[in-house]
Amino acid sequence: MKYLSGLVLFAAAALLLHNARQSEAACGYESCPKTKSNMINIHMVPHSHDDVGWLKTVDQYYYGHKSNIQHAGVQYIIDTVISELIKDPKRRFIQVETSFFAKWWQEQSETVKQVVKKLVNEGRFEFTGGAWSMNDEAAVNYQSVIDQFTVGLKWLDETFGACARPRIGWQIDPFGHSREQASIFAQMGYDGEFFARMDHSDKNNRLDNLAMEMIWDASESLTNGELFTGLLYRHYSAPPGYCFDVHCGDDPIIDAKSYDNNVKSRVDDFLSYVSNVAKYYRSNHIMIPMGDDFQYEDAQVNFKNMDKLIKYVNARQADGSTYNLFYSTPACYLNSVHEGLQTWPNKTDDFFPYASDSNSFWTGYYTSRPTQKRFERDGNHMLQTAKQLSVFADLKSEQQKEDLDYLRQIMGVMQHHDAITGTEKQAVSNDYDRLLYDGIIGGASNARDALRVLTNLPEGEFESCLQLNISECAFTQDSADNVVVTLFNPLAHTSSQYVRVPVKDENYQVTDEKGRLVASEVVPVAWQVLALEYRQNTTQHELVFKASVNKIASYFIKKVDKVESKEIVLPKAAKKSVKQNDKNVEVPKRFKKVHSMKNVETHADDDSETVVQTSQIKLVIDNNTGRLKTVEMNGVSETIDQNFAIYETYESGAYVFRQKEDVDLKFLEDKVEFTVYDGALVKEVHQQFSEWISQVIRIYEGVNRVEFEWLVGPIPTDEDTAREIVTVFDSEISSNGVFYTDSNGREMIKRVKDKREDFTPDLENQPTSGNYYPVTSRIYLQDNKKRMVLLNDRSQGGTSMNDGELELMLHRSVLSTNEVQSVADLFDSDLDQGRIAHGKLFLILNALAKKSTVVERLSEKEIHLPFWKFFSSYSKVNRNAAAKPLPDFNLLPKSVHLLTLEPFTDDELLLRVENFLDHIEGQVVSFNIRQIFDGLGGVEIRETTLDGNMPLSEMKRFKFHAEGSGAVSTEAEFYTAAHKPLSADSSMEASEFSVTLNPMQIRTFIIRKK
Q1: Whole-prediction pTM value?
Q2: Which residue in 154, 170, 191, 174 sits closest to 97, CA to CA?
């Protein structure tokens, strides 16, 4: 490496200096440069924004490979930055992505590591953000965001100690910003956050009103959740003409006696820019970022010119200039602002959707690559399962720890704002899938090891089937006879859920661990799923039974001679003629394989409706249209017409959803072919809307929601027209243009059609796209009597363009290459062929009541973290092996969620509990965790900030005042813990282990084990 020799030389010199001046080291705010009260203080922030995958893969970016795609090599950036920081103690740099830095750190000599530790301890190399990646804020679930911050911050703490702890959220590149992300920063003890993207109309309005920086009330339920938030003036780039990086062509600063000496003009122009920036900010401090994507690969060029700029700008102070320029960091900038004791505008909603111009609302990425968005949720599902099982079984081998860490880290990568967003190149998407698949396999290995310890199957296979979404499982493809299904429940409380196992068309009985017969039935898989070319068609049915699981439970499947047969009923309006012989089934030509359906008869009466119902839900299907007509549940009846529709687009991209002008949403108007399966446990309506759109509507006995399992694709495209597919639920609810969407799976935010909190949006060109919002778990509307709710299994874009109507985008194909750095050809699939997406929505209809949303919260948890299924052979059961007793989390109040239980260090566990109801739905709950503490083998317990890496007793967070909030103190103020942090050991009374949770409150504990 061309920079290595210089780095080592400087490392040796710095070490000598370090040894002589060890006692002088200071980090954090104590290390910030001195400012001048009578001047405009220009905080110049050197930084490099390094995407953890985008146009190139993670490794290609790190190693500098594939320069023909993009010239970027992160390892060289860190190398040369460290080299340059050593040269001058005034120089500073912020490092953001912990994943890249951790990879670099592993390759360094002990000498280099000591140099970096010195730079960190002096505040000159400062970590900002600090998560494993700079996460997206629209498509992510809060659980995964918290996890990836925990991973990054834990690595920093273990490597460097307290001096490496970030104090600032640095979310400069995500495409819109969520309120929940700000709340997470506040709960982790961060002092503020900065970002660079805001709707162009919002930004112009804020420039006019000195509102580029604000106090964000990040939660309606939590107290002390306010967070200082600032928008950078000009993206996150250096001022125009002052990019001194090798990627740029801007003029260097030429001084001395050179004929080309340009010091005066360069300083004049810089101060002219700075004076303009200063007009839009309230304090006498402004922050000027110096960097951009993958800059500082030859940091000498950057720092040499910035040194000169500082020198010559400050030299003018002798002649009366009021500008003071120096190296700084976002934390030092905010510290100065905090000391200024000013007041700031208030912000309560979020920053969605983001529009870069009047024709570009970045709302397409809410749905882009829908199968990858679902795969990420599967990764989280396995991560929570593997973490909990690792705790219960006390897994400690190096391989087990390595596998779990790898899955944690890959899930951190998947939160990146070009990963879960679906805005990456196809080759990068493939690499993300590869990495996540490897991570899930490692997590499944840990789960298997744990279950062999925890159950009476010490030699059980405990195989995970990762293709259950297409009703396929290698373990049951030949026979499901004498199969054990072991279910793991990641939730705190015992849960009852229906389980579906791919089987052949045979007769089975299911028993529980006590030998009791469990009601079950075999249902056919939709022929559209069976017809997928890449699917193995050995199993064409699913065995359905209801399971009740505390933490771990096994159910036994045995083949029997005969059970009572069930019927498939075809309504009169169905076009498709289905008979005993599958050769007579009329299906589109592209489908090659179709299963036979036994005991089928045609619906012969003249009824215009088909009724499908359980004891809790009644669905009415209109025989003339084949679509849903009416839903009755929870004592409420509502007309609901559900259909699919198409936006024809020409310039949509991976990021932007851009509708054709004067082209309305095209609904599918053909009659829908449908069949009905009327079982005792489950009722299913199989619908075919078009050659490439189908659906199964499903209701289970005893389950209070309606399931819609959709299958969309391949989406046909023309040379000049792509298509984006939505489903629309149209009711008669008088919503008056108001609907609600979740913020990263937590609190709900009110949306008003065509409105924003702080400004008037520019909706002339894109009225639909400009009303789209991210939906990561729930969207609903209501009037004074009823509410209609949709829950989803992955992030999607959603809206309500007409009263009583909810719309979610399911799948999209785009052809445009007109976006800046766009990703052309946005296609993906479940299994890398056919560009088909497959997923589920859930409908809940309820009367409007204060507590009616509780059932939605409970459903959210079951949808996000259902049972994980493991398969073994019955022959592996050892009747003499006793299952290991586990802590009983049913002791927790019903509104308390087990958010996290994981190994933290070799002798510590991390436990997070959450009151998942908000201030309207829920109330303060108190409980005692001594029994859980003992069950986990606890010796000591201490409470930390949300991320688990700082004692809560040490949290001291900047407090700012919003305009009109009352008298402002004459001294800087801080937030500290709002309650006494829990700290106890096993010798203390049980009363010392009492925990109180306010609505939406999360508390994090570290438990040291015996």
Answers
A1: 0.94
A2: 170
